[in-house]
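This follows on from our talk about sequence and fold. Can you supply me with one protein entry, sequence and fold together? Could you add the entry underneath, on a fresh line?
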Amino acid sequence: MFDTMTLTKIVGSFCGALLIFLLGSWAAEEIYHVGGHGDGHDGEITQAYSIPVEDDGAEAEAEPEVPFEEVFASADAGAGERVFGKCRACHQINGTDAVGPHLNGVVGREVASVGGFNYSGALGEQAEAWDPEVLNAFLIDPQGWAPGTTMSFNGLPNIEDRANLIAYLDSLEG
């Protein structure tokens, strides 16, 4: 049952499988090699050609940042209602709380003052009332403005969106 020929077949099949595995690994490395042609021996990449670009010597001037007060003065509450769609998942404007507190009457209201809502405590340490400037600072980056807040929103990077949203919230009755 277990003679020399059987042992030879088993050893030969293992050696054949190892050879197929090694050849397959080598072929896959050749086909899917991450480095490209022209790689130097020291990891140096040789560029085929360069396109010269004339530099006029002038630095690109950054746009001057418009103060929030100017943007807020010309804010559009109708556009802010569309921006509020990002807030609607967690906040209501009908006086009832959801995941977050209701936002009707929030402009001018004391921070963390909605009765019955469990605030994280991080907000009250930053400001006393939600005036437009405080709301603007908060909406840029809620986690950065009030570290430890439970609000997981990433913020509104566009100043016009923030101003329009605050104008819309200001137009709501408390």
User: Anything to note?
Assistant: Residues 74-171 form a domain with the Cytochrome Bc1 Complex; Chain D, domain 2 fold (CATH 1.10.760.10). The helical segments are 4-31, 68-73, 77-83, 132-140, 142-145, 159-171. The chain has six helices and no strands. The CA atoms of residues 140 and 157 lie 6 Å apart.
